[in-house]
Amino acid sequence: xxxxxxxxxxxxxxxxxxxxxxxxxxxxxxxxxxxxxxxxxxxxxxxxxxxxxxxxxxxxxxxxxxxxxxxxxxxxxxxxxxxxxxxxxxxxxxxxxxxxxxxxxxxxxxxxxxxxxxxxxxxxxxxxxxxxxxxxxxxxxxxxxxxxxxxxxxxxxxxxxxxxxxxxxxxxxxxxxxxxxxxxxxxxxxxxxxxxxxxxxxxxxxxxxxxxxxxxxxxxxxxxxxxxxxxxxxxxxxxxxxxxxxxxxxxxxxxxxxxxxxxxxxxxxxxxxxxxxxxxxxxxxxxxxxxxxxxxxxxxxxxxxxxxxxxxxxxxxxxxxxxxxxxxxxxxxxxxxxxxxxxxxxxxxxxxxx
Amino acid sequence: xxxxxxxxxxxxxxxxxxxxxxxxxxxxxxxxxxxxxxxxxxxxxxxxxxxxxxxxxxxxxxxxxxxxxxxxxxxxxxxxxxxxxxxxxxxxxxxxxxxxxxxxxxxxxxxxxxxxxxxxxxxxxxxxxxxxxxxxxxxxxxxxxxxxxxxxxxxxxxxxxxxxxxxxxxxxxxxxxxxxxxxxxxxxxxxxxxxxxxxxxxxxxxxxxxxxxxxxxxxxxxxxxxxxxxxxxxxxxxxxxxxxxxxxxxxxxxxxxxxxxxxxxxxxxxxxxxxxxxxxxxxxxxxxxxxxxxxxxxxxxxxxxxxxxxxxxxxxxxxxxxxxxxxxxxxxxxxxxxxxxxxxxxxxxxxxxx
Lengths: 354, 354
Prior knowledge:
The structure is a homodimer. By secondary structure, chain A is an alpha/beta fold. Chain A has one domain: Rossmann fold (3-Layer(aba) Sandwich). The first copy, chain A, has helices spanning 17-30, 126-132, 167-172, 198-202, 213-227, 237-248, 290-308, 336-349; strands spanning 42-57, 63-65, 74-76, 80-94, 103-106, 137-141, 230-235, 253-259, 277-282, 312-317. Chain A has an 8-stranded mixed sheet, with helices on both faces. A two-stranded antiparallel ribbon of chain A has the order 2-3. In chain A, β7, α6 and β8 form a beta-alpha-beta unit. In chain A, α5 (213-227) crosses α6. Chain A starts with 16 loop residues before the first helix and ends in a 5-residue tail after the last helix. The model of chain A is unreliable at 1-9 (pLDDT under 50).
C-alpha cells in the first residue's frame, strides 16, 4: 500500500471537501498563533524562469576537465549556444487570500530576492510578514544574479562584473558612519540595522553587471504580463525596473512602493504613470550623506513632476512619522515590521487588501 | 487601527489556542484536497547563509562606474575583503510534521536548488511533493552557485568556471540520443523528460567551478551540524558531498538517498558509513551510454564494498521495478511523483515517517 492512501477517509463525500476546507482554514486564520501575529499558512508555492534569449559563443578553446574526483575526464567545449538573461521567480500563496492582487518584490543592485526573506539575524522578513496577512508574494532574482544564472563574459555579457566588498554596503548604505567606517566598525548611533549580523548579511551579496538593464527590464515586464495586475515593491535599483515595467504596461500595476529609489528613467514618460498610486519610503540619516541627499532630491523632483502631470505620488520620510534609525536596508532593519506596517496600511487604504 | 488587530477574536482564551490549532490542522490534513493528493500546508519557512570565509583582493585597478542611468558615477575599488564560499539554504516546514527528521536536498553540478522545485513544464517538484507528506524540506545552492553568490576569479576562486551549453545536458543526461543529438533535437524514444520544456529547463543552468569541492563539503557539513539529524537526498555531484558530510558526522545522517551518484570519495573510509541506510536510484537507458554504464559500475563496486564492510546499501535500477524512461533528471521527469514514491516508501519502511 503506498503511504499516501492513508490520507483518504472515505466517510466524507468529495463534494463537501472544498466547503469543509474553507471553513477549517477560516477557523485557523481567525485563531491567533501567538496573540499578536496572524499565523503563516501557505497553501501554494512554486518557481519558474521567465524571459531570456539564446546566445552563441565561438572561438574559445576546448578543455579537458575532471568534474569530480575519480570521474573520467570530460571534454568541455565552451563554444555553442547558451540560454541567458532569464529571470528566476519564486511564489507563495497564502491559504486565505486577502490581498486583491499579488505583491511582487524586486531587489536592489548587488543583491537577490533573499533580501526579502529571513533577516541576517534570523528575524522574519517582509516575504512572510505579508504572506501572514494574506498576500500572494513573488520574489525574483534580477537577470544575471542568484538563481537567474550568469553568462560568459565578455563573450555574451560584454563587460566585467562588479563585486561588492564587505566594506561597501556598510559605508554606503547608511549603516556605518561613511567612507572608511568599516575599518573601525563604526556604526551610525541609533541605526536599526542588526549590526551584529552584518557579516552574515554580506554572504548574500552577489556580483552584478551594469550592461544588463535592458534584459532585466524585459524580464520584469514579462513577469508583470504573466502574473499582473500586481503591486510592485521595489528596492533601490529595482525601482528603475519597476517604473519602466509600469510605463510599458501601466494597466498591470495597481500600485508601486519604492524603497529609496535611486533612479527614475526618462522624465518625459510621466503620462503612463498617472493612474498608478506611488509610495516612496526613505529612511533616516539621509541629510548626513551628500550622496543620499542627492538621491532624495532627485526623487522629490521626480514625484513633483509626476504630480504636476496629474499623477499620485507620495514620498514619506520615515523619521517624519517618528520611525527612526532606518538604513538603506530597511526590509532587514530591526524595526522592519514597523516599516512593513506603513506599506500595509497604505495599500489597505487604497482598497488593495480586504 | 493597524490592520492586523482584526485578527484577534477576544472570545477564545489564549491557552486554548494551541490545542484548537492542532485540532483544526489535523482535520484539514485528513481532508483530501482532491481525493488523490494530501494538501500542501506550510506553516514555517525561511532562509539563511551558512559557512564561508573572508578573502582579500589586492592590486586591481579602481574603476568609475555609473550604476544606474542618471545616477552620479561611483568609484568602485575592487580591492578589499569579500565574504565568499558561503551557502544559501531555504527551508519550509509543513503544518503537521510526519517525517521524523528533515529532508535535505542537494543538487548536482551546473544546477541549483531549483531542480527540486516546480518542474520546467510547470508540474510539482519533489520539494512540495514531500512537504505535502509532512516532511520539513531544506533546499540549498552549492557554494558559488545561485543565491550562494560567486567570487572574483582567478583572484579568489583560482580557476575559470565551466558553463553548460544548451546542448550539453540534452546529450549527456540521457534525454537526447547522445553526442550530436541536440542539433536534430532527437530524443531517446520513451524518455520521461518533458522535452517540450527542455529550453525552459536550460534557463536554470548556472556556471560552476571544479576547484570549490572543499568549500562545498565544508558548507554542507556545517548544514548537517546545524539542522541534523536529517535525511540527505543528493543528485549526481551532490552525492559526493553527501557521502563526505556523512563520513564527517555520521551521527547526523539517518539515511542517504543518492540519485545517480557520480563519485564516491575515498574508498578506505567505509567504516563511518556502516550505520547509515543508503538507497541509490538509477534511471533508464544506462546500458546504451558507455559513460553512464561506467558511472553505474563504479556505484555497484562502491555499494558492494560498503556491504562487505557491514554497511546497508541498496541500488535500485528503476526499470527493474517497471519504472521506465527516466533520464538523469528524474526529479523533473514526467513520472517524478512515481519516483518520489519509491523514496517515500523506502524512508517509511525505515521508520523515518510516521
